[in-house]
Design a protein that fits this description.
Elements lengths: L18 E5 L17 H10 L4 E3 L10 H9 L4 E9 L8 H17 L4 E6 L18 H22 L2 E4 L10 H10 L6 E5 H6 L4 H7 L4 E6 L1 E2 L1 H10 L3 H6 L3 E2 L8 H10 L4 E5 L11 H14 L3
Parallel strand pairs: 1-2, 1-10, 2-3, 3-4, 4-5, 5-6, 6-7, 7-10
Antiparallel strand pairs: 8-9
Length: 311
């Protein structure tokens, strides 16, 4: 697929040549490697390409083919390239989980590397089950757990870079210990910028009350990757008031189609563009579960909206 020619930019709009927009299986309602309520991977690839995207993430390991030869053929003939893989970790639990974590990371990183990606998105473990709401551990980390989280994440970043040539970008996420301004800034202040960057998910950060523009302007050198997402403020207010876990909150529609929610993406993209660095901005609209015909029209509208924002 031919890339559009760069257009002149202004300080109030991001540079199209520095921000590369993509989408992910998440925007097609895909949360698991195999689930009968999810669209087949072939349909996802067809539709994400048809919506005008050139970049995708791998999604849950095993949803897309894990044979690099097969996946390269399938993506190439649709004009698609891979920006990142994704892993879930629980590194705050200490050295005892390292070997198990690394085995999971390694298979994802190997596939991402083989597909030419540069990033690995790292999501912390949930403190409560994202579907049932069962409390799995304390919501707040102890000082010792914070030390384990920061030190082992730095180790992960260095080893992933050394062995696979990928940069980890840590993704604050609802119902994890790393979600809003307090925990995210504490994490950034405690980790080595050379080893650890941030994947700023605008929807998850807003879900926890964070201001994405402020974070970009304050910690711009740590922003290594973006997930573009919005929350519906009215649904979010109900979710927070009732203590609804993340999975049921998504089923209620807490993550909504741009530009109908918050944060406004135009100032986020402008702040990111002002950093003057290459960034992926991957659209993710959590929609699990959803009817199979729902995602594609939304993807088309979202891509048009992002073009109107200058990317």
């Amino acid at each position: 697929m031919t890339k559009p020619s760069p257009q002149p930019s202004s300080p109030s709009s991001p540079s199209p040549s520095r921000i590369r927009v993509g989408s992910a299986p998440d925007s097609w309602g895909v949360w698991f490697p195999d689930d009968p309520r999810q669209v087949p991977w072939q349909r996802f690839l067809d539709e994400v390409s048809g919506a005008g995207y050139e970049w995708i993430e791998l999604g849950p390991y095993g949803y897309l083919p894990t044979d690099p030869g097969v996946l390269t053929e399938e993506t190439s003939r649709r004009g698609l390239r891979v920006s990142a893989g994704t892993v879930f970790t629980g590194l705050h639990r200490g050295p005892d989980v390292w070997d198990r974590t690394w085995a999971h990371v390694a298979e994802n990183a190997a596939l991402a590397q083989a597909m030419g990606a540069d990033h690995l998105v790292v999501i912390p473990a949930f403190w409560r089950d994202d579907r049932t709401g069962e409390v799995l551990e304390d919501r707040e980390l102890t000082p010792g757990q914070w030390r384990d989280l920061t030190r082992l994440t730095e180790r992960l970043g260095r080893e992933v870079r050394e062995r696979y040539g990928l940069r980890i970008v840590v993704h604050p996420h609802a119902d994890t210990h790393l979600d809003g301004e307090v925990s995210v800034t504490r994490f950034l202040d405690a980790t080595d910028p050379d080893a650890v960057s941030l994947c700023l998910d605008t929807g998850h950060y807003a879900y926890a009350g964070g201001d994405s523009v402020k974070l970009i302007e304050t910690y711009g050198e740590r922003i290594g990757y973006l997930h573009l997402k919005q929350v519906d403020p009215a649904v979010l207010a109900g979710v927070v008031a009732e203590g609804v876990p993340f999975g049921p909150a998504v089923a209620r529609g807490v993550m909504c189609e741009p530009p109908s929610g918050v944060p406004a993406l135009e100032p986020v993209l402008a702040a990111a563009g002002a950093l003057g660095v290459d960034l992926f901005a991957i659209v993710e609209q959590d929609m699990y579960p959803c009817e199979p015909d729902v995602p594609y029209p939304i993807a088309l509208r979202t891509r048009r909206f992002l073009r109107s924002c200058g990317v």
